[in-house]
Every structure is written in C-alpha cells, then in structure tokens.
Design a protein that fits this description.
By secondary structure, the protein is of the alpha/beta class. The structure holds glutamine and zinc ion. It comes from Mycolicibacter terrae.
Length: 761
C-alpha cells in the first residue's frame, strides 16, 4: 500500500493491432480458419508489443488487462462471474465469451450499446434474479504475470463496480442492478487481495460513470465503495480513474476515502473544483491533460499552464491522457500522404504517449528539459492558427447572413398543401430509408476503382446499372417514394467527407467500433465548403428512370460531426453550421435538378448528447439549428424527410419536433403506439414513419403482421400523417430478403388503405 507514485501514464491503449491484426485473427478464428492457439499467439504478441512500446517511450506505469478479445465490459462480466445462464452450456471458455458477445445458432447475444458519448460500443451485461457474482481473476492475473515477466511496470486496470452496475441491464424482473453494489464490492475486495498477492503495486479502477448524471447518488456510492475498498489492508495502491468529463461532486467524495490516486479528465472536465477539495493534498492526482479521444497535437504550453494550476492541490501530480487512447488510431507513422502542416497538428496514440512523457519530464526537471518538444508544439499551434484552410471568409459570412435571416420554412399546413399538389401520393405512402443491399458486385467495383483496375467512367457505369436495378425493383414492388439505393456510398459520412473541403481521410487511422469491427473516421480539420454537388448526378439519373418521386439522400451535420474526428479550435456549433451550409447547398442543387423529396439523416442526434443534463439543452439548440440551416433553403413544395435510428427518444424528443422535417422515419422496436404516443405527447404534428419491420434480422415479416402494426399506428396517428417504411437502411440485407419483405410491406399498406375507415383513396 505504500507504492511509489507514478509520474507518467496512459489510462489504456488501442488493442486491435497497428494493422488490425487482432481483427483478422478473431475473424479467422470465427470462420474456423485458424485454431485457438494461433489466435492466442497473435493476442499475446500484440500485448507484448504494446507494453514494450509504452515502457520504452518512458511511461513509469503501464496499464495491463486493457487487452480484450472483444470488449472490456464483457471482460468485466467474466471477471465477476456474471455471464448470463444461457451461455453456460458452451464448454470452451473463449467460445463461451464469443457466444455472449455475438450469439450463435442457439444463443442470443447480449445487447450492445454506445460507451458514453464515444463511437465505441460495449456489451451490456445482464443482471437478473439468478445472476450470482464470483471472482474469476484468471485474465487479469495472467496479463499481470506476462507483463511483469517482460519487465514492465504493470498496473492492472479493471472497470469499477459502480460503472459496471449502472451500465448493466436489469433482466427477468430484477430491479436496477445498482442495488447489488454491496455484494459486488465484496468481490472487488477479493480481487484486490488476489492482485496484491500477485505483486501488483497499483490497480486502476475505472469509474467513468461518475462524470455523468446517470445516478444522482453516484458521489455517495463512490464514497461508500472506495471507503470500503480503501480500508482493506491487503491490497495494491488504488487509483480510481474518472474520465470523459468532470467528476463534479464525486471528486470530493473520492478524495474523502483512503484511495491513493484519483484521475481527472482535464480536457473535457475542468480544473476549477480541484483547489476546492482539500483532501486531495494527500493524494496523487492523475491529470488527464492529453486528449485521449481526439487526434489533435497537445499544445504543451497550455497543458503545462493547466498542470501548474493543480500542482499545489495534491501530494503529487502524474501526467496522463484524458481517457484510454482506445478511441484514437495507433500512430501517425503510416500517414505519409499528409502535407507537413497538417501532419504537424496531429497526435495519434503513440504520439500522445510521447506528449505525456514530455509533460512529466517538464514537471520533474523543468521545461528546459523538453525545450525542443515545446518549441515544436508552439510551431504547430502557430501553423494551425494561421493556416488559410481554417478560415474561409465566404463560408463564415454566408452562415451569418442566413442565420440572421432565420432558418424557418412556411407553416406546416402550407407545406403539406404544396407538397400534396406536387407529389400526388396515396394515403399511407410507402418508402424505404435509403440504402439497398450492398451487393458483391458493388463491393468489387469499389475495390477495382481503388486498385485502379477500372477507371471512373467504368465505375460510374456499374453504379448506374445498380441504380437502374434498384429503381426497377421498387417500381415492380409498387413503392410510392423511391430511392436510388446508395450503391456509391461506402459509408454515409465518409462519402461526404471525401468530397468536402476541410476534411481529410487517413490512410490507416482505424479505431475499434465494437468487437472486430473497426472504422476509419475522417478528420474535419478546417473550414468546410462544398466545391461541387455531391449527389445530384446519381439522384437525377435515378429520377430519369421513373415517374415516381425519387428521394434525394443526404447525411445531416450532426451525424457527420459525430462520426468524424472534429477540430477542437472552435465551438462544435460553429463547425456544425459549416457542414450544414454544405448540405444546404446540396439540397438546393437537388431541388433545382427536380428532386421533390430530400431526406437528411440524423441517426447520431442522440449520440452526441452531453453526459451532464446541464449541458444538454445548449447542445440540442445548436444541433437543431444546424439541421434547420441544412434544410430550410428549399421551397415549401419540396418535402424534407429525416431518419433517426432509435425509438427511445428520452431527452431528445423535443428536439425531434424542432427539426421541423415534413416526414420523420424512426425505429419502432417497442410498439408503434408507444413511439407515436411519445410523439403525440409533445404535440408532434408532422408526417411519421414508425418502422414496420426490423431490418436487423433476416426474417421476412408477413403482410398480416405489418398490417397489424399499421392498424395499431392508426390508433395513435391520423392516416394523413402516417408513412409506411422499414426501420432503417437495407444495405446489410440480402436482395431476396429485401424483395420479399418490401413486397409484404406494400401489400400491408394497400390492404390497410382499402379497409381502414378513415381512408378514402
Ligand atoms: N440513408 C441511410 C441508409 O439507408 C441511413 C442509415 C442510418 O440510418 N444509419 O443506409
Ligand atoms: Zn437508421
């Protein structure tokens, strides 16, 4: 318990492999191409390399047990012996773990959801009346041993009991899992003694939930749990890590307990409350001053100034990243295509470790010791400030002019009348969310273009052939508002980022999204502008093939921000407006080209919601403002749709109405009634398409089933406002499933039109 304080560390690191080695190995294992030994060999190699690099860079405490075959919450469920009973029959341990994560022919997987406000998804543990807890420390002990044998100053990391329970899901009638906190704390006590026995000097216990408003009594719970764990005699020194925001009242609660170190996120939280917590004077403060989840180079001067304000408040200050660098790519090294200026503004995982080490040296030896690093950081800051790509006066003045004039459209009734005259749709119009299956041919064409095996004319020809097929299919099915199917889009954000000024794509900037799935988010570094139309050629080609209206398909500004790495030198609201202006220009070009219906997708509207309630309204205001900026340029006769991928609106329901779209399609995984009742409760009066079938499953729903959903919906919403559509885009489905499901969907709409009393065709 009297371990030496450490001075430089990171809270965790990427684990998928610098070249996505773990992704390839796990997928090969799942496909039966390699055995478990080979998978384990890849995993051990990645751990060894990661630790060696962190130690060689100069960290004096290295996180271990941050490796995962799938997810750290699932690892924690295993650690606590809390996997659901339905996987218990899988004899092999690793297969049982993967069954919990992914399911198999007989076993439904656990749910997956977003990890705080990041784009990482965790596996949601289930706590039911039959759940028991029993310590299973094999993984953490094995990683500790492996690291120690390698000579690494290893610090095991586990997710803490408060975060684990508050992020778990109650099942089978169990009350909210947090009621089991006392019982679970006992298991953590056993864990701490096992770690002490194994020679761990420090343990990091992650409690990011303390920066949220998920539970009002979280600070009291923190005091209770850590007083108890801190009071144990046989334990390593305890470092409780909070991250993703300001711990607020939880900071003094933690400081009142006997834990030795407390981590605070000084990038997304503030230094304000630190001086007000006198108990910190006996603690190590682990200051997260290097941004662990965005890719910008740290301004070392600014970070040193921040550190200076907290130095007097703690017994010792260690420098760290704000959170695990799991959320950023491994290293800048493969990014050889960037110009020097751009490259100098960035720091990926490996570069962030160097920043931490430089800052810690500056604290220990004085800033002269890292004069060179500070000089380079200052040069990068100056270059970024003065780069003309970050200041497009035309874009800025256009936004100011438009927002000053207001982003209102005509009244809902005026629009409804104008659109009815133009579109002549039947009651209960049928449509889809945008994408059709991404077929093998589409993927082949994209790969061939990238490999320069075909030229862009040939690529365009093949995409047009896909569009023609999709239009013919929709005509044959009898849908009312058609789509072009999005064959040309690899990803709904990347597609736009590639065409807009102010973005760049990385060569190897992969980050784990969930399990073996990785994404390569674009980097939004400068002022955003649209040099040319992005979608009109595809949309007008599709429209030329049919007399039915074809819906133009765009991604909204909030979603583009949410799935990119975004510049941190101006408020997000300003950046959102720049993206919105580009989308607005696109809606106007689509309108000019004769497209009468335009959908602007905002599936990420809820994801970016701030973790603290006090910050949410300001976010919703700018998010709604950006959406309206992007959609309010068109005439009243042009119909604006939006699509959101969820049905549990919670705090964002008012914002959905404020988007002021003409038609909103949503998931309706719960019942239609509930979704529509929620909307009715806030006086939502627009068109609404609660998904009549779940596209996440290959099952083909029957006509009767979907007709029953429509009847149910008509109890809550008048026929004049109801649309008929699936839950989400169809790109992950097979063409035959889609054809059968949409045929039944159209039949259900027709049947309901014919039989429902309120409808006269
Ligand atoms: N238009 C997109 C599609 O159909 C929407 C995807 C989404 O909501 N995530 O694929
Ligand atoms: Zn969706």
């Amino acid at each position: 318990m009297t371990a030496q304080p450490f001075t430089a560390t990171v809270l965790g690191s990427p684990r998928i492999g610098p070249r996505r080695e773990l992704k390839r190995a796990t997928e090969s294992y799942w496909a039966g191409r390699i055995g478990q030994d080979e998978l384990q060999k890849v995993a051990a190699g990645l751990r060894r390399d990661t630790w060696a690099q962190l130690a060689a860079a100069g960290l004096d405490s290295v996180p271990v047990n941050t490796f995962s075959y799938y997810d750290q919450m699932l690892d924690t469920a295993v650690l606590l012996g809390a996997l659901p009973a339905r996987v218990a029959g899988v004899a092999d341990e690793l297969d049982r773990y993967f069954a919990a994560a992914r399911g198999n022919a007989d076993i439904a997987p656990l749910e997956m959801t977003k990890w705080f406000d990041t784009n990482y998804h965790y596996i949601v543990p289930e706590i039911g009346p039959d759940t028991t807890f029993a310590l299973n420390p094999a993984k953490v002990l094995a990683e500790l041993k492996e690291a120690v044998e390698q000579g690494i100053p290893a610090r095991p990391v586990v997710i803490g009991p408060i975060t684990f329970l508050l992020l778990s899901k109650a099942v089978d009638g169990s009350p909210a899992p947090i009621f089991r906190l006392d019982e679970l704390t006992d298991v953590y006590a056993q864990l701490l003694s096992a770690l002490a026995e194994a020679g761990a000097e420090w343990v990091q216990i992650d409690e990011p939930v303390l920066v949220t408003d998920v539970a009002a009594d979280a600070p009291a719970l923190a005091e209770q749990v850590y007083a108890r764990l801190g009071g144990l005699s046989n334990r390593p020194s305890i470092f409780v890590a909070t991250y993703f925001g300001d711990p607020g009242a939880a900071l003094s609660s933690l400081a009142a307990t006997p834990v030795e170190a407390i981590g605070v996120d000084l990038v997304y939280g503030s230094t304000d409350s630190i001086a007000a917590v006198p108990e910190l004077a006996s603690k190590v403060l682990v200051a997260g001053v290097v941004d662990g989840r965005n890719i910008w180079r740290t301004d070392l001067e600014a970070a040193l100034a921040k550190l200076a304000t907290v130095l007097g408040s703690a017994a010792a200050v260690a420098v760290s990243t704000s959170c695990s660098t799991l959320h950023v790519p491994y290293s800048l090294e493969p990014e050889t295509g960037l110009d020097d200026a751009l490259r100098s503004w960035l720091a990926f995982g490996a570069e962030k470790v160097n920043e931490v080490v430089s800052l810690a040296r500056a604290l220990a030896e004085g800033r002269e010791a890292v004069a060179e690093q500070i000089h380079a950081s200052n040069a990068a800051v100056a270059s970024r400030k003065s780069d003309p790509r970050l200041n497009n006066a035309d874009v800025r003045s256009r936004i100011a002019t438009i927002t000053a004039a207001g982003t209102h459209r005509g009244s809902a009734e005026t629009r409804r009348a104008a659109q009815a005259d133009r579109l002549h749709l039947p009651p209960l119009p049928t449509t889809t969310i945008g994408s059709f299956p991404q077929t093998v041919d589409i993927r082949k064409a994209r790969a061939a273009l990238a490999a320069e095996e075909i030229d862009s004319a040939e690529y365009t020809r093949r995409m047009k052939a896909e569009i023609a097929d999709v239009i013919a299919l929709q005509e044959q099915l009898g849908l009312d508002v058609l789509v072009h199917g999005e064959p040309e889009r690899n990803d709904m954000v990347q597609y736009f980022a590639e065409q807009l000024e102010g973005f760049f794509a990385t060569a190897n900037g992969w980050v784990q999204s969930y399990g073996s799935r990785c994404v390569r988010p674009p980097v939004l570094f400068g002022d955003v502008a649209r040099p040319h139309p992005m979608t009109t050629a595809w949309a007008t080609y599709a429209q030329s093939l049919t007399d039915k209206p074809v819906k133009g398909m765009l991604t909204g500004p909030v979603t583009i921000l949410a799935w990119s790495f975004v510049r941190d030198d101006q408020p997000l609201a300003d950046t959102a407006n720049q993206v919105a202006l580009a989308i607005r220009d696109e809606t106007l070009d689509l309108e000019k080209a004769g497209i009468a219906v335009i959908q602007v997708d905002e599936p990420a509207l809820r994801e970016l919601l701030p973790l603290r309630k006090a910050d949410q309204q300001a976010y919703l205001d700018w998010a709604v403002g950006a959406f309206r900026l992007s959609t309010s340029g068109v005439s009243d006769a042009t119909q604006i749709h939006t699509h959101l991928c969820y049905s549990e609106f919670g705090e964002v329901i008012g914002a959905i109405a404020d988007l002021d779209a003409d038609v909103t399609s949503l998931e309706a995984a719960r019942s239609h009634m509930e979704v529509l009742d929620d909307l009715n409760a806030i006086g939502f009066a627009g068109g609404v398409g609660p998904g009549v079938y779940d596209i996440h499953s290959p099952r083909v729903p029957s006509t009767d089933e979907m007709a029953a959903s429509l009847r149910e919906a008509l109890n809550a919403v008048p026929a004049q406002r109801l649309w008929v559509n699936p839950d989400c885009g169809l790109k992950t489905r097979k063409t035959d499933e889609v054809t059968a499901s949409l045929a039944n969907m159209v039949a259900a709409a027709r049947k309901t039109r014919a039989t429902h009393a309120g409808i006269k065709s």
